[in-house]
Amino acid sequence: MITEFDPRANYEKTKKETGYVCRQEATQQTYDAIGFMSGLEVHQQLLTEKKLFCNCPAGKFHKSDNYDAEVVRHMRPTLSELGGYDGTALMEFRTRKEIIYRLKNETTCTYEVDDTPPFPINRDALNIAIKISLLSKLNIVGEVHITRKQYLDGSIPTGFQRTAIIGVEGEIPLKNKKVRLIQLSIEEDSCREISDIGHTRIYKTDRLGMPLIETVTYPDMVNPDEVKEACEYIRFLNRSTGLVRTGIGAGREDVNVSCKGGTRIEIKGVAHTKWIPELTHVECFRQWALLKVRDKLKKLYPSVSEWSMNHEYLDFDMFDITYEPLKIARDLGHKLIAVNLPGFRSILSHFTQPTKMFANEIAERLKVIACLEHPNMLHTEQFEGVITSVDLEIIAPMLGASDNDAQIILWGPAEDMKTAIETIEERCRMAFEGIPGETRKSFEDGSTIFERVLPGADRMYPDTDSAPIPLTDEEIKILGQDLPNDLIERYQQLKKWGVAESTYTYIFKNNLYPVIESISKNTGIDPKWIGNMIGHKLKWVEGHFEKGSEFNNKVLENMLDYLQKHNYDLRLAFRMLPIVYQYPKMDLDSVLTSLRFKQIKTDEIIEKIHFLDEKFNTVAITNRPKNRVNWIMGQLHGLARGNMSLTELHAIVNQKISHE
Amino acid sequence: MSEDFFQGYKGEALNLLKKYQVRVWGQAEVETTRGNFQGTVLPRSENDDQKHIVMKIVTGYNIGIDTDTITGMKETGYKKANYKIPEKEFPTTKGLPSVKLLGTGGTIASRLDYRTGAVIPAFTPGELYGAVPELADICNLTTDKLFAVFSENMGPDQYKKLAIAIGQEIEKGVDGIVIGHGTDTLSHTAAALTFMVQNSPVPIVLVGSQRSSDRPSSDAALNLMHAMTAAGHGDIAEVMVCMFGPTSDEYGFLHRGTRVRKMHSSYRSTFRTLGDVPLATVTRKGVAPIKKNYNPRRKDRNVTILPYFEEKVAIVYYYPNMMPDIIDSLVDNGYRGIIIAGTGLGHINKPLYPAIERAHAKGVHMFMAVQTMWGYCHMFVYDTGRDLMAKGIIPAANMLPETAYIKLGWVLGQTNDPTEVKRLMLTPVNDEITEREPYNGYLIFQGGVKDVDEFVRKVHK
Ligand SMILES: [Zn+2]
After folding, report:
1. What is the ipTM metric for this complex?
2. Do B62 and A183 lie within an 8 Å CB cutoff?
3. What is d(CA A193, CA A186) in angstroms, rounded to the nearest whole number?
4. Is B107 a catalytic residue?
5. Which DSSP symbol is given to A580?
6. Which of A80, B198, B257, B366 has the most Cβ atoms closer than 10 angstroms to its Cβ?
7. What per-residue confidence (pLDDT) applies to B1?
8. pLDDT, tens digit (0-9, with 9 covering 90-100), for B383-413
9. Residue A295: in which H helix or E strand, if any?
């Protein structure tokens, strides 16, 4: 007889044991305690007309069902140096995936499908990569060697990506520290995945072969915000050249995270920089939680060799099935298996991420490695349990299960069950070691799921199809001219001032940095305020009104200078700007008149509060203080605007009204 | 023998390595005017320049360092790489056919030395088993490495040795023979073996790969499995080429050795049967014949080996404005046979006539094939053709130019008698000349045509 168990309580308890706090509550001490460490691999597509190793156009994309032909490939692991197979390679081989490529004539030639050797490297792309390497203060190599980097997931039909190092050992400056760069490489982009269901994975080849650079940092970042800052800097630096692609998917990053005693985990293809802090925060704690799991298991089984699991095939008709996926599985003639995991009670429901528990780690691998679509298993520690105590009374004796154990029930096609059982056993054994090396897929809420086994080091080898390309000092010197070095300094300055990141593109595109600098110098107005005003308000006005032919930056400066000199509230600028923008020759007093602005001293405004407070008693229907404040604010609004801060006024009104 | 510590380095690069006492396979720190670099010094490819030193950096990438920028070097460690493919014993399974793999030097199965990029061929059964374990489910394999030459260096000597070796293996009782071969001249060897090994009781399958097996998407493993299946289990006892049908990993074709040609410089599905349909398709499940007439497998061991070849034979590919001295120089250099690949139905232009007459008078045997590759030589249709025949050129029907070249070499290795040469040339051994060309023996679809594009969209290429 198996006793009752409360998985929800166990989840909360283990979350506490892990010491998980949300990011808002986390401090540097929090991260130091778990040894947060993170590095980046920032990918950036280059703006070239053609692809990197063939003459197909770059940057043309197709819908998934718009294709001219399909090609089928299977990826085979190749022997490694010591005659074994790489971990990822084996995993991909076990999954027995049929890879289908959808080709569109317009964007795909025989090179993309590996039926033609590479053409000489796209010189435009190479030159852009060299320029960005120079900006990143990297040591430029003397000769570029095209290298093959194996990918067995099928994302590249050759089974490897052609890539080459342009520079090594650089650095980028953050607000408070310098982050070292390991290297910058140029590489061909991969296919876009259309679907991955069961044993069939479908890709399209439009993006395949587009030139890309990858900037790799050392794991120098010690908290999630630093990772974001470094990423923003690298992306800005790339964009500052004007030679890279922008838009969705043009910049992507892989984020490597580990905790103290943990493993390097690669979070792949993070689409938005703003996701980085939450993702790295959650991942670091996931690793910390897995170390707790390890310690618990080690206590029960000092050596993993003492641990073994067992499983039994079940008949569907042994149970009263109400769970829909199981009904479907039964009708499809799938197999049903129960697995006993000795000592795993309270492990399956162990906290790993804010939305996930240890059992998810198993289910995710079943999907990827054994090709079992979700939902692919049930277990005894689900919050909303599907396995009933009646079911358990049937299963437990068959498995010889005891109170310390946990059980999984899984189902799927007969031919996949061997791999499925191996996958469960493998993941459980790994729990005794700690954290398996993985690449993980990211989600907006900060959670991640298993994507692949982390590839080993033995997957790089020279491309025998390409000759090395020498880079002479003269070539590098020419490419080094006209680099936007001052742009980088200006970026740093904007950061230092605290101007919002979202304004930078606009500011640099329109060369408004000198305007901010000069206005600030001449008027003494906070450059942060000027930058945000320009980057947000001016940009908005530009998009909504027609510009008067005489409008220029001097007009902008005069307006702010005028407000400053008259001691007006600077926020009047927000209302004046549309008029000044359209009628730059209008004198500023007239602008204010047109806005019905009258200068009144702050004291005069405040004096009116008492009168209005009494008047409210005669007009009011209800007597709630909130209504009273709002009514008074409404009466004073027009007078106050441009003369004093409304927030400030609100506070004063609040203070002065009668509170009976 | 003293060890070469500077593999492949010459000139300035070699001087620097010697000066700073840094060896190939040494871990080195290099100071340059472009900053510092660290890594393992790798051998330099013989054909590359003398101005760069190659290093593998810690992330696994290779880089080159310009010798002009180097201001200092220091060796901090040394670890020589020495790798080979693991030998695993090829399991023998009772009831499976015995197949002999004869190696010629093409690397069907191989792995790459990750540091140098050198290809290490896998050839022994043990090595092959390590690389393609599925082979053990198909047959009991033994191997013999006859020679190690590149495909382009295969020639008459190798053809003859191969034919004799095949004869011996058949006598010993194998159930099938697979020949590993580079793809460039695979069809030449297939034609030669068709003529030299006649009446074989077992399949003789030539196989290669268009993508070496150190690549994850290589066609090598599947081609090998297909070839072993055709050799061990197939019923067609002929000399055949086994390579990819479509570029997709789906099925292979078995092509008759005399009608097959490499038609694309790099495609996987490069081999095509010309002027006919392929013999069969092959998957790991077995051989499915397309043609009904073939020589079936037999129990006896009665094979005829005819290892003859005259080397003084040439192909002349005609082009407008070809000068007669091309033919003259062949004759002056003692050539005894010439295959002319003529235009259209088998034509060359008048200025060559005197040279043709001189060659004929000197006893040079001349046959006409067509450079269109599809279709027959029809020299009766136009005056030009009739003139040429009168001057001693014999039309070779629909024999492919390369097959005609191989056959003429084989024939002239046996006789010089014009009547006998003509008789042997025009009597097909195995469909090098066919009586009929089926309507689907010539299918070259033109992309861009709506119906064709629709077909291509549906059928995996
Ligand atoms: Zn292309």
Report:
1. 0.91
2. no
3. 22
4. yes
5. H
6. B257
7. 45
8. 888 888 889 999 999 999 999 999 999 999 9
9. helix A276-300
